[in-house]
Batch of 3 targets.
Target 1
Amino acid sequence: MKLALIMSQRSFPLAPEITTENYQRCSHSEHEADVKDAEMATDRHWISGPAATFAFGPFQLFPTQRLLTEADKPVQLGSRAFDILLALLERPGDLVSKEELMARVWPNTFVAPVNLAVHISALRRALGDGRRGNRYVVNIPGRGYRFVAPVTVVEDVQLSARSERGREHNLPAHLTRPIGRAEIVNELAHQRPQQRLLTIVEGGMLDVGLTAVKKLIGAHDKGVWLIALTPLEDS
Amino acid sequence: VTVVPVVSIVDDDQSVRDGIVDLVRAMGFDAEAFERAQDFLQSSRVDSTSCLITDVRMPGMTGFELHDRLVASGKRIPTVVVTAFPKDADRVRAQQGGVICYLAKPFDESELAACIMSALGSRAVGRRE
């Protein structure tokens, strides 16, 4: 998983006066997001460009991967329901009309309002909306829907975090923690950081090597990159 | 006597016809499919159909022409249009023509089912005789 930089946290019901426009302005001054990013921000993706991820409650939505997770576990969600959720998250707190949602989710076609209702209902079920007092998607009868929970927008580091140089890497997020290998991990991580290339040969050592290398994130100017050599087949 | 709603399908693609007929029957409705719009217009089902599902591009008569023909003859059958070639102009045409849904193939069965239910609900379901 790429490193992420938290851009903003806002709770809409409490701060309705934050509009699209002044939000963009304040995000610029605080975080020095560059001008290109602002140009990329279309009406639809005004928050931070298409690579942003959204966090709310225990959930996180990754638009490019089309993935929704709850406490880091993937949540089953149909593609229509996913599109609806994404459309609502892009404008948290705003009323999104049924027409807008349908045009977004069924481009070039149109469906009966009941189709939208069906997917909204599936979305609510997936989120556990209404259970244990959780409220996420609220229906404004006859008009549309509103996402009411606080949303945290997380910006992809590669787009904006120039200051994070050296913290880039492509190491897997979840590693099996090697047990009883602390010495080797320590040696690899602290005694050989000056070496630019580390080759891990044996499969069983992979987690040891990766755990060690993870400690090196930030130590090298160009980041830390894993290159998997294609396994050779026995001939 | 409550009558089982009659759903008619017009599509020149047999696999689509078969698929929709199966779906409609599974929903508990009476389904029959026609290869050409003319065949449907000449059948006795024109008067009993509560929901029409039609393709757009077909040899002879398009789905939109079929819809217009029915409207012109005073038979307002709630209609669902399905097409492999969704176009914005057609979407607008369908919407203005009072079509219930304009779906792109391949469509989700549950989506078509919801459209059929809307079509049937748009006039009295289970007409009494």
Target 2
Amino acid sequence: MSPTSARRIIVLATWCVLWAWWGVAWTAVEVAQHGGVVDLLGFPWVQVAVAVVITVGAGLTATFGRELTAKYANRPFDAAREYRKDVAVSVILGLGGYAAGLVWRADAPTVALGLIALGWSGTRALSAAAGRLIDMIRRGPAGDEGLPK
Amino acid sequence: MSKPSSLHGKSARAAILAASTWTAVIQLWITTSLAYKAAGPGVLIDWMNIVLLALSLFGWVDLFWRDLLGKTIWPSFSPRLRHYVCVYLYSALALGFGVRAFTAAGEDWRSVLLVGSYYLLFSLAAMLEPYALMREDRKDQQ
């Protein structure tokens, strides 16, 4: 197996583990809320989708700010890479934030405003770490150009 | 003076400000409206609407005073700071519609589906405005 194929598999496996972890976490929340009865079909998926939209919006706002700062500082800004990365981070934060709101039984406005704060601050805080992770996965052995961007 | 915004930009901002102002007003004071029902009772959502109303009024002042009359709001307000403020202002208004959609999509979401979907679609559309503002040229000169 070539190093490039191996790293592609690592990326896919990382995503699968991440989503599987969320699945387990959400099922646990359901079990805790309904006394052992899992009813994922009855879950408020519309609200979950809106929660993700809110968090992605807040995360994108943070990215807008970073791009604007880079523009005024005459620094290069790889917009496509940054937006892809920040949207991925925001989606994960949104799902986690909503699950946390369910666990703490917070009311809807509190969860929504919390998701904005989480999307904004979380994306700013985790963006650099996510970038380093992507670089680490992409970086191959000496002489290898790594995955295409 | 930095280059004024295009008519398209002014129209888009006026539409967002009008929708944001009016929605905040009906969610706060018109108790018979579907929007009021979608917001539900709660101090937090009322305070959010008051803050969004204040931001919308600031946006109206900026739109009329700066974009339509071509004057600076006050001499020390740098165009660069205004660039940042406008991006965050319109993002906040768009996210406000997201919060309204989230609240509407609560337990009683079927009865307020229309107004909730309007909030969500408008939130997504309104997010284009801060993106477009951010993509504008640097505003280094007064």
Target 3
Amino acid sequence: MIDEAFDTELEARLRATLAEMIPKLVASSTVEGRALATAVDVVVTSRRATPVRRPRRAIAALLAVAATLIGLIVIADRYNDRTTPSAPTTDNTTPAWYGTIAPLLPERFPYVALTFATDVQLWFVAIGPTDGKALEIQLASGGYSAGPTTSVDATGEWSATAHGWTVRTPQGLFVSVSCDIGVGGRDYVGSPNYCDMTSGVLPYTMTEIRAVANRLATSLTLSIFDQKLGKPQGDTIDEAEATARIQEAVPGQLITATDLGDGADRIYNAGVGNVPPASSDTLAPLDAIPPKADTSVRILHGVYPTSVVTEEPSAEGYDDAGVVWMFGAGGVFVRISTTDPSPESVTRLEQLARDLMKLDPVASKPATTPTIYTAGATTTTTIEFPAVLGADSTSTSSTTTTTTVPACGRTTAPPTVLVVNASHVVGTAMWWRDALAASVPGVDFAEPVNALVKESSSRVLALSGYECEASLVAGFTAVAVAAVEPATIENLQALVAEPLPVGTSIIVLVGNDNMSRITVGATTTTLG
Amino acid sequence: MSMSGPIDPLLRAVPVVHRDVDVGALYIEHRARLLGVAAAITLDRAVAEEIVQDAFAGLQRHASRIDNPVGYLQRSVVNLSLNLIRRRRVAASHPTVPPLPASTAEVDETWASVVGLPANQRAVVVLRFWQDMTIDAIADTLGWPSGSVKSTLHRALRQLKEALR
């Protein structure tokens, strides 16, 4: 036996050494922390060699500003009503918690679940339907310490977290907001910030997250904990069944399931990590075990509004990670994140999403009514967009499209379509700020708005004429729009070349070459 | 040492989270020990801090379904540490272990040998001889068969003997 064979002198020496040196290591400088963070990043980089599926090669870059607008909208055909949910409808059974929290959240994250509720805490998850990102929102009461204070302002004491912000108000309301795509084990400081990535998807920046936290902190008071806002909705999916499905999808990975709010928020983490070959008494050297994907499956119940149902999962690639998500009936939401974004992996996880959804007796029911977009108390209107484009024969197969858009304003003019080739404007996140700042004298854009995806065939499309909160189009997918040549950065700049009044909203969409898939993203930036 | 930010500030904010689990008390009682385990495996104090925070954050969020909070924490810390080591190895990038003053040359030599062990072997050694855990307890923590723990420990000790001979 090992212990029997062990040299007692060596054992004593080891014990003494570890007892002395581990506390010293713990007390040592943090300089090495940066080393590992870098190392992890290097891993991330190395994995980029893995083919990254970008089901939505297109990226939508949008700047929305406040009140009235020259709406620049591109909409053609809905790519697939099943895969891209439109924005939510509300009904008479709106939970109290939703009515309290939702108006304070960005419209990019319209689907919300209450996952944890006590007398002193309320936790929410707000889901972005177009890219799989989610805001993790935690409210708490008391004199909390959030670690090193980054700054202090009128709102309170701010601290930066791994992928978000916390703020403690002078009154004692503690607000934490972070953004992630759910990749397990990558939410520590220094880990990739997938929400803020500018490649492939519409980023959601730390500044935007801070704005959300600020809005919550300044709009809510401690009285929120005295209100009877409701409880999380428990799960209806059998955990063992779900685990079995996940195990089938990621064989060889060790699965750990945890949940919150009586199952409202259930997370299954699967990973190979250090798990040795099964039924082996001889542990292979760690280096000999090939790295495999870590997979994190999250199932939310009680997502509201419940009107959204997707019959097929959506997917998005994030450099070295991928995420698959799906909405089911009754407020069930499944999101699967993986560190293996290869097409094979994503396809497998898409099937897993379908399988998991089928386990829920409610979620598996087909939608009885189509989902439509409404914004608050407004109604919806169907508008036919005549195609105005035509330079690119490969992308003009659809000449007239019909879509439902929020009746959030009146039509101010016939739509004007502007199309530019974005191939020359890649990596110009800062450009937007500069261009807009130049276009709107006296207005300070606090941050880069959005970057354009580096797709040589991308085109930026814009269509103006509708007054509408730009972000309200989140969830729509546009296709079949032509290109105009020559189209360069100058053309793009022309979109905002004219002075724009404060409150102007702009929507810019970038599509792939044949416009077969375009994501319309949205974010909101309020001019000061 | 300073961290660039907390993983889950609410972890520190709310001592009692779930009906049966006093995370605050567990944090006070076990944090230092878990930090030592993570640091000894990763050889990285800052990352160890993050890992321990992650583990407590996980406990905080899911305490209602965790029967053995201490076991959960231990398992999370060890596995998160080894997962990070794996990624670091894939990257072929190893952090430089900070030079630590030892009380004697023997301790210094032994520590250098421990640091030189593969991470999984070092983890087993730390759990066995710093945490005084049994083979079965280590196996439970790592999710390995007991035989794998034994063989790993055996290889580790053999390497240490050779290095210290």
